[in-house]
Specification:
With about 425 residues, this protein is of the alpha/beta class. It has three domains: about 70 residues, no CATH class; about 60 residues, no CATH class; about 260 residues, 3-Layer(aba) Sandwich (Rossmann fold), CATH 3.40.50. It contains 13 helices and eleven strands. The strands form four sheets. The chain has a five-stranded parallel sheet with strand order 8-7-9-10-11, sandwiched between helices. Strands 1-2 form a two-stranded antiparallel sheet. A two-stranded antiparallel ribbon has the order 3-4. A hairpin with a 3-residue loop joins strand 3 and strand 4. Helix 4 packs across helix 13, helix 5 packs parallel to helix 10 and helix 9 runs parallel beside helix 12. The chain is elongated, with a radius of gyration of 37 Å. The N and C termini lie far apart (about 125 Å).
């Protein structure tokens, strides 16, 4: 037989404690609500309240998550560009970012990636040139000028708008001065030395049938002179392509479809550089004193070979070559640079050696050497030891115009190019 003990609300044993036999049913002996009865009555209510608040919190969190996802999608473009490129490469949305703005090429070694977009502009056309698309050959009555060189010709990313580079500014000046319709092709190649420019001309640029070819060169070839064991084919400091790739882990690609996750990864991977490296050694691991000794010892035979063949080929193609030597910043600007300032002496010596080669080739083939004086571009127009801003680009364009006007006049006077005569 079971016995039931009744408690009052104070959880103490009732003064009239009674042991009443029972078969399992509670029989309160007074009108007061017992503790156990209250507990039994409140349990369903508490479960209902917990369920209500749990559902409310879940819905609230879900709404906040959706709002956060929408907000993340809107602010994602403000996250570090390198991080966003890394994310894009992992989810394969934009293959163009996997190797930055370079593309490997079986004959040309490398080119700028066609259609590459950055700095709010399409930077390169289908041929990797930094100008609008042009037909394969100049149309009747159109003068075509090809500009080849390194980063000081293409000026990317230093000048964000392709129309502000000196080749395109030159196009505007010629049309304004002469009334002749002109196509100027900016075939500058970041990091390109004379070997690269020669390959690009032989396999691609010569077929554009330009009337004038401007060679703005001598800077990147100087780097070769700073290294030991110099070889005119540049094998002593060119080691081949190096690529960086990010391989997503299982489920990572699916998670990266969410904007919130993209933002986290873009911030996390902001220091990752996916730009394919063209495989040339940098001078940062060399001591300036050693670079100076190497430069004093080495002679620019490779630059001489390449430039001579390039000029001869341009002449054979019926075009007029114009040499435009490399321009470097004033000494006070140059020496203040943290990265290259300590190398001022060997680098300037290398530039001057290449400048002598340019003068030699110009005299040999009787072509124009459009040297720009060291004082022509103020130091304030330089970003670093050689790259200039829009004002510096305009100075270069105006400088080249003075050298090109006599050549253009000869082309106009030539019966074969009579259609180039200015509009009246």
């Amino acid at each position: 037989m079971l016995y039931t003990v009744f408690f009052n609300r104070s959880n103490h044993v009732n003064k009239d404690l009674l042991f009443i036999p029972t078969s399992g049913t509670l029989h309160p002996i007074s009108g007061e609500t017992t503790f156990m009865e209250t507990e039994i009555t409140n349990k369903p209510v508490r479960r209902g309240m917990r369920l209500f608040f749990g559902t409310f919190i879940f819905i609230l969190c879900f709404i906040l998550l959706i709002l956060a996802e929408i907000t993340a999608g809107r602010v994602y473009r403000k996250f570090p560009a390198n991080g966003r490129r890394a994310v894009a490469s992992m989810i394969d949305e934009e293959r163009v970012v996997q190797s930055g703005y370079y593309s490997q090429h079986p004959y040309l070694y490398y080119t700028h990636r066609s259609g590459y977009e950055a700095l709010s502009n399409v930077q390169f056309n289908s041929l990797g040139h930094r100008n609008d698309e042009v037909p394969s050959a100049p149309e009747p009555g159109v003068l075509r000028i090809l500009c080849i060189g390194g980063s000081t010709t293409v000026s990317f990313p230093y000048v964000s708008d392709p129309r502000e580079t000196w080749p395109i500014k030159l196009e505007e000046l010629i049309e304004k001065e002469t009334g002749i319709k002109v196509d100027v092709i900016n075939a500058g190649l970041n990091g390109g030395n004379s070997a690269d420019l020669l390959a690009h001309y032989i396999f691609r640029n010569r077929y554009l049938k330009s009337h004038i070819v401007i060679l703005h060169t001598g800077g990147n070839d100087a780097t070769a002179l700073l290294f030991p064991n110099y070889h005119p084919e540049y094998t002593h400091y060119t080691k081949g392509w190096r690529n960086t790739a990010l391989v997503p882990r299982p489920l990572e690609t699916a998670w990266l479809r969410f904007n919130l996750v993209k933002c986290v990864y873009a911030w996390w991977l902001q220091d990752i550089d996916l730009n394919a490296q063209i495989g040339r050694l940098g001078i940062e691991k060399l001591k300036p004193a050693d670079c100076l000794k190497n430069t004093q010892k080495n002679e620019p035979e490779g630059f001489r070979r390449n430039l001579d063949l390039l000029v001869r080929t341009i002449i054979q193609d019926g075009a007029q070559p114009v040499l435009f030597p490399f321009v470097w910043a004033p000494e006070d600007v140059f020496r203040k640079m943290r990265e290259y300032g300590p190398y001022y002496d060997p680098m300037v010596l290398a530039f001057k050696k290449n400048l002598s080669v340019i003068e030699e080739i110009a005299a040999k083939h009787n072509v124009i050497n459009a040297k720009l004086s060291a004082e022509a571009i103020p130091g304030s127009h330089f970003f670093d030891f050689c790259h200039v801003n829009e004002k510096g680009e305009a100075i270069k364009a105006a400088h080249m115009l003075q050298y090109l006007k006599p050549i253009i006049q000869k082309l106009v006077d030539n019966e074969k190019l009579a259609q180039l005569k200015p509009k009246t």
